[in-house]
């Protein structure tokens, strides 16, 4: 997706925020543009209190003087704006391509409204072409991997399960100190059942299926920004 389309989606979603709001800040190359736009507004006197979904977003927000807090200091947010790897017509998402899915899901669930920003290439008829990120505890990695493989088999996955590697070739470590398994399903026909099955595995911390969390989406195409769900 072109950077310009990411910017257009992020700019369009700025209409979701008002001065005085408590805002969740997503992670990734699209969310980064939203944080830039928000930072420009803050420089002009816009007031907000924000919770970042990753250390990377926190660093960016601090550099822009965006006031930050935590979900220990406040227990609810008005809105969260975040990217996605896939979105279907029911606004079910796959997220976690950047490894931030756990904090992203915690922040989205604490928000009155989650807004997705992406380009229209992220819209899919059926979820699953993008490998599903599954965040797992380091302890018992082999046993957890076997149980996840069994679930993939039960759900007729068409691809492999891969331990994500970082740029140094070592296993990628999340902000929470966990590993990520990327599960290539090919197609996911029952996201709810898959979610439940994965969460039954003791070593699975969380997965990247976001169900009943996304309320609205701004999706940019070369022809303009289309919306899904309850935009303002
Ligand atoms: O862990 C990362 C997040 O879920 C991202 O929001 C997602 O991967 C989309 O990222 P991008 O906007 O860079 O395509």
Automatic annotation (TrEMBL):
Per its UniProt record, what Gene3D superfamilies does this chain match?
3.30.70.260, 3.40.50.1360
Q: Which reaction does it catalyse?
A: aldehydo-D-ribose 5-phosphate = D-ribulose 5-phosphate
Q: What keyword terms does UniProt attach to this protein?
A: Isomerase
EC numbers for this chain: 5.3.1.6
User: What InterPro entries does its record include?
Assistant: NagB/RpiA_transferase-like (IPR037171), Ribose-5P_isomerase (IPR050262), Ribose5P_isomerase_typA_subgr (IPR020672), Ribose5P_isomerase_type_A (IPR004788)
Q: Which residues form a coiled coil?
A: none
- In this protein, the active site sits at 104 (proton acceptor)
Entry superkingdom: Bacteria
Per UniProt, the enzyme's principal EC class comes to isomerase
Q: In which pathway does it act?
A: Carbohydrate degradation; pentose phosphate pathway; D-ribose 5-phosphate from D-ribulose 5-phosphate (non-oxidative stage): step 1/1
Q: Name one GO molecular function term.
A: isomerase activity
Q: How does it assemble?
A: Homodimer.
State its role.
Catalyzes the reversible conversion of ribose-5-phosphate to ribulose 5-phosphate.
HAMAP family the UniProt entry points to: Rib_5P_isom_A (MF_00170)
According to its UniProt record, which protein family does this protein belong to?
Answer: Belongs to the ribose 5-phosphate isomerase family.
Query: Which named protein is this?
Result: Ribose-5-phosphate isomerase A
Task: Please name the taxonomic classification of the source.
Answer: Bacteria, Pseudomonadati, Pseudomonadota, Alphaproteobacteria, Hyphomicrobiales
Q: What is the primary gene name for this protein?
A: rpiA
């Amino acid at each position: 997706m072109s950077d310009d389309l990411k910017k257009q989606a992020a700019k369009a979603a700025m209409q979701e925020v008002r001065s005085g709001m408590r805002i969740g800040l997503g992670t990734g190359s699209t969310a980064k543009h939203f944080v830039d736009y928000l930072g420009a507004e803050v420089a002009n006197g816009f007031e907000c209190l924000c919770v970042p979904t990753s250390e990377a977003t926190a660093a960016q927000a601090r550099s822009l003087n965006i006031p930050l807090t935590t979900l220990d200091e406040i227990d609810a947010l008005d809105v969260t704006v975040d990217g996605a790897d896939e979105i279907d017509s029911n606004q079910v998402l796959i997220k976690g391509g950047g490894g931030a899915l756990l904090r992203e899901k915690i922040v989205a669930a604490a928000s009155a409204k989650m807004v997705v920003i992406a380009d229209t290439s992220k819209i899919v008829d059926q979820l699953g072409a993008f490998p599903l990120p599954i965040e797992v505890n380091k302890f018992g990695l082999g046993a957890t991997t076997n149980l996840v493989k069994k679930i993939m088999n039960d759900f007729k996955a068409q691809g492999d399960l891969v331990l994500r590697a970082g740029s140094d070739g070592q296993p990628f470590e999340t902000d929470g100190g966990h590993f990520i398994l990327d599960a290539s399903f090919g197609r996911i026909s029952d996201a709810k059942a898959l979610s439940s099955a994965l969460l039954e595995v003791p070593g699975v911390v969380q997965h990247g299926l976001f169900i009943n969390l996304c309320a609205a989406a701004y999706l940019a195409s070369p022809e303009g920004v289309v919306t899904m769900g309850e935009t303002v």
